[in-house]
Amino acid sequence: MRLLRLELERFGPFTGRTLHFREDASLHVVYGPNEAGKSSALAAIKDLLFGFERQTDFDFLHEGKDLRIGAEIADRQGRRMAFRRRKGNKNTLIDAADASIGDDALSPFLGSLTRPVFCRAFGLNAEDLRAGAEEMLKSEGDVGASLFAAASGLRGLTDVRQSLEAEATGIFAPRAAKDRRFYQAYERFDTAHKTIRALELKASDWKALNARIEALAGELDKIRAERAAKAAERARLSRLKSIAPLLGRIDAHLGDLEDFGDLPEVENGFAARLRRALAAAEVAQDRLEHADIARTRATRDLDAVAVDGGLLAHAAELGELVEKFGTYTDAARDLPRIRAEAEQYDRSLRALAVRLGLPSDAPVEARIPSDAALALVRSLLEEGGDVARDLARQGEALGSEESTLEDLQRERRQRGALVDPAPLKVRFAAFAPLLKGLERRVALKTAIQAEERDLLAAGQRLKPGIVDLGCLDPAALPDAGSIEGAREALANIGEAIRREQAGLEELASGLARSEARILALAEAGPVPSAEAIAAARIARDALWAELRTSLFEAEGRLQGAARFEALRAFERAVEDADRLADAQARDAKRVADHGAEVQAAARNRAALAQTEARLAGLRGQEKTERSAWAGLWSGCGVVPLTPAEMLVWRSAVDHLLERLARLREQRSDLAAIDEQFAGIEPSLRNLAAETGLSDMGGLDLGLLVARLEGRLGEIGESWDRARDLETRIRSTEARVARTAALRDVAVGRQAEWRGRWEKAVAAIGLEPDAALEQAAAALAAWDKVPDTRDERDNRLRRVRGMERNIEAFELKARDLAASLAPDLKDLSADSAVKAMLSRLEVAQKEAVRREEGTSRLAQARVDFEEAEQSLAEGKQEVGRLCRELPSGADVARVLDGLERRERLREALGDLRAQLVDVSGGRAEEDLRAELAGFDPDATEAALAVLSDEEAILERRGNETYAEHDREIRRRTALEAGVGAEVALQQKRSAEAELADAAREWLVLKLGAQLIGKAIEQHRAGQQDPMMKRAAALFSELTGGDYEGLNQEYDDNDLPRLVGRRLSGSPVPIAGMSEGTRDQLYLALRLAYLEDFAGRSEPAPFIGDDLFATFDDRRTAHGLKALADIGGRVQPILFTHHQHVVELARETLGSKVDALTLA
Prior knowledge:
Helices cover 72% and strands 6% of the residues. By secondary structure, the protein is α/β, with parallel strands linked by helices. Among the domains are: 370-415 and 729-763; 433-472 and 652-713, no CATH class; 480-528 and 587-632; 529-577.
């Protein structure tokens, strides 16, 4: 599909803009400077073909509902279609009259192409070009990954595949690891399974547990009662300990109050009022004394002040002089400098007169030209420079074009006669139907070689490996059913062995525990079991029988020491039997536990022997099954692994055998194709000789066709270059004529300007033939004259004003000094003013001191009168209060006694209130009765004993409660079976986690394998045709620095893409520069587009500043490569670099269609 016309009716910044794409052009270059709307035009093509998106950024000038784009397109069958696109949800394709033509009207042109695929595969900019090249570098030149990325525009697939593989390995791998989710879940599953088997309830344990709980409950009740009694006793002793000191202090205060019985009874607060009255009278006396001293000092200070009234009367006049003093001093200082500046500006005016050619004493300011005359000269000065530069530029351009024309004509003479490639191409095209199979032959041959290597490597990678897959007899291999049956049989036997082994370990553990407990019970002494008692009694009876025979029967009677020893032995046997019987009665629990453990040990030994017998039988069955399993594979010469592994192995072998069958079919197809091409090979070799190719006798047919195609292309390029040369010569001749005409126009402009220039320079005092530089110098001088004149006049006015101000100030200063300070009349004006100002400041300070002294004296008199009044009132209050005391009493002594008595009474009240709080409100008399016989030391000892006893009880209570609670919870768990249920839930949860982990692992592995398979299929399916074309484009893009592309296999038998220099040496992707990698990625993309065009209707290829990082040489090669695919795909290059347009015109000539956005 080709874009013939793009109408930007209302879109982005465009209104009514139309781009026409020349149909015969091999490349279209659309130039737009910055802010010309290049991005908008690129977006318009996407919206035109696939519709406006719901949210658009290009409705900033026109409203969304008014957006319109139009176009005319054509497919390779010649069908054309004109349409327009509006923004909306449906019926967005319309004709010129805004009538809907159906949203599927573009389907014959676009096919299944979608917007994302178009943007990735048929759009490319410099950034994506560099990113694609970096992706090739990341994949280390993997052929499949590189071709896939170049074809689809998708990047990062290698990283995605590696990420999926790593994530899957984190879930599961054949080697167990604690950090893998699958094995973590399996460990929880196994733990829960063991817990379920361990949680079993026995009758003896249940009975003992209930008895223990009841005993612990009784013990808790007893401890609580004891702790309550101890707490009550502690409270009583603590109360007595606290109130004893309080009552002692109360008694002491009552005794102290009896010492103040001779004092008069007065109302509360009397002593405090009297104390305040005495203090107030004393303070008033001190105030009176201080007020008298202050009054005397103020009178003395006021009499010492003397004020000069004359100076104060003329303070305003002196102030005016002070205000003007700064101006006076500044004028006196600056006057010489201003006079000098005025003289300097006057000298500058005389110098300017000399520069302008006037006498130095001439009044130059009177001869200043008019502004109009100066402006005219400036305008003509600038215009003259432009005219001169334009004339020089046109002369240089004419010389350059004439030189270019000579070079082109020389090249035409050197090129000589040319060969028309059309007849040769027609003859070669006659072989095209048959040569289509040549590509299939090359693809088949490459695929066969690759498949042979893959099958060999795949067979060797199997475990057990296969050296030669072709020698393997499929009929001798066990089928999947036999393998599955063997797997199930061995798995069932293995599971039974594991169960018996687990049971065996559990029985052995139980036997060990029973034996350990038996030993532990025997550590306290021999256990008086029923068997031991029975044995002792049997020994006793045996000794009695012997003794009875000796005592009552004549025969066998013992004599002397022997009889005595027999009696002692019998007595010891009686004592041992009785002691065991008594010990059994005393230690019944230990005897019972010992008997139970002995019985348990016997049961475990019997069960252990049975389990070992069953385990031996199972191991025999396992050995038989394994022998049968090995026999299944004896006929094919394979040493099998486990059935599960061999089941996978068999599936892999079946897949490899299917691939081997397909490989044999491909070999047959290749032989048929070789036979077909044998008939046309002589004709092709004759045609190659006619094109100038020699020594083609031993060359492979595929290489012969490639060389012949290349030779025909070279002849066609020479023919095209010759035609382009003629076009360039005609274009250069036209430019020479246009440049000569422009030079003549420039000469005429210069003559017309010269006439106006001679008149204008005369008005400013210059000769008619004055040069541009002379006029510029005169203008600069005349520009300075007005400013210099104004500055001189300004300085003269300032001098006159300063002299007036100085004279007026000195006159005023002399008059004021004569009237106020005759002694200063001989001083200068500024010194006299300073002296008078100093005397005025002294007089003003004395006046302020007099005012302040008068104010202080008035305030001192008021303070003295107030102090006298306060003293009289204080003495009156003290006299009134003293009338309450006994006549002639010592006021100070009585006041001290009254204050002490009040403090004692207050303290006594506080103690009794505290006593009420401590005793809980009990009466003081009751407390005194309870304290009768109270001994503090005995109380402390009793409290210490109680503290120890309570600590012991608390510890016992906590331990008993904890044990009771633990047993209760144990019984509750056993009653409800909660432990087993929790374990069962944990087991089910672990099973669910195992299933989830397995499912997620499978999804990740499938995703990684699908990506790998897609890359592999792309490598196998499109490798040869695309690689061949990509190699040619890469050579063209690099300007012949690289001859083409090769594939090299790495250590893993994966094909890697490498460049091939002219010397034949390979260069890996990592060894290429960034720019060369960019060129390689572009070659792969362009090769894919041509391949796509051979199978489907292609969309235009849109390049956006594709060569922004290329230099001019690489850009020229890139433009040629784009033009090379122009026969099958329409390339449109957008750029904002003008030099790219010029380079395209120079490189491609008439093949390029240059358009401009404005």
